[in-house]
Design a protein that fits this description.
It is a single chain. The protein is an alpha/beta fold and about 240 residues long. The chain has a single domain (about 15-235), classed as Spore Coat Polysaccharide Biosynthesis Protein SpsA, Chain A, CATH 3.90.550.10. Helices cover about 30% and strands about 20% of the residues. It has helices at about 45-55, 70-75, 95-105, 125-135, 160-165, 175-180, 200-210, 235, and strands at about 15-25, 40, 45, 60-65, 80-85, 110-115, 140-145, 150, 155, 185-190, 215. The strands form two sheets. Strands 1, 4, 5, 6, 7, 8, 9 and 10 form an eight-stranded mixed sheet that branches. Helix 2 (about 70-75) links the parallel strand 4 (about 60-65) and strand 5 (about 80-85). The protein starts with 16 loop residues before the first strand and ends with a helix.
Length: about 240
């Protein structure tokens, strides 16, 4: 993805940055809705993330698809990204992380691993993490921490990337930080964008009520998704 904005600030040299955008999940807690296709203010979440990545100066993006892959790939076809299909998406996020990391060309100074269901993430938020990555004095994975809660996305360097791929480590696992403290730099921040995601119909309803933004289900449901009529009222009303 071409750089639209050189980011990070300060006197540090510009980094060569890659990203893995995770868009393969089944959305089980969302009633079988493909979350990357949920539209916020008319724009699919997966597209919003790609715009944010481009605005933050990311050079290459691998989008990992799985569930509802045809529809997701249709949405991102206008972006210069590498598409990776994880046929084992039902087994969890670890396989998608690995598939995306392996698909990137590189070499990179840093790589984002970014879920597609974080509606508030912007180029400024990603730039904040890039700045934290440049200024860190230790650690190989930058993890945002907001009020003691781990957030996303994370940003890892070449050392972490090599160790993750060599050891088959689960970057998506919530225990990764505790099990690998030597790899981690915790970026303490008050930026709540890093801890807002959309996992359930209640999350959708709360975000709509708090922001006044319009949230819409995918216009065309995949064959694997239930009809809108069978979804919880909290979703249907959005």
């Amino acid at each position: 993805m071409g750089c639209l904005l050189k980011s990070g600030g300060g006197l540090h040299p510009r980094l060569h940055i890659g990203a893995v955008l995770l868009a393969a999940g089944e959305g089980r807690r969302m009633g079988g809705i493909a979350k990357p296709l949920i539209r916020l203010q008319g724009v699919p979440l997966v597209s919003r993330q790609l715009v944010a990545l481009s605005g933050a100066g990311v050079d290459e993006v691998a989008v990992v698809t799985g569930y509802a892959s045809d529809a997701v790939e249709q949405e991102v076809q206008g972006f210069p990204v590498t598409l990776v299909h994880n046929s084992c998406y039902a087994e969890g996020q670890q396989g998608s992380v690995r598939a995306g990391l392996e698909a990137l060309g590189g070499p990179f100074d840093a790589v984002f691993v970014l879920p597609s269901d974080q509606p508030l993430i912007s180029a400024d938020d990603l730039t904040e993490l890039i700045g934290a990555f440049k200024k860190r004095t230790a650690g190989h994975v930058v993890v945002p921490m907001v009020g003691g809660k781990r957030g996303n996305p994370v940003l890892l360097d070449e050392v972490a990337l090599e160790q993750i791929l060599a050891a088959d480590a689960n970057l998506a696992c919530r225990h990764f930080i505790d099990n690998n403290p030597q790899l981690v730099h915790l970026h303490e921040t008050a930026n709540v964008h890093f801890i807002v995601d959309l996992d359930t119909p209640t999350d959708l309803k709360k975000l709509a009520e708090k922001t006044g933004w319009q949230l819409e289900l995918p216009i065309e449901e995949s064959d694997e998704s239930p009809p809108v009529a069978n979804l919880p009222a909290a979703i249907v009303s959005l």
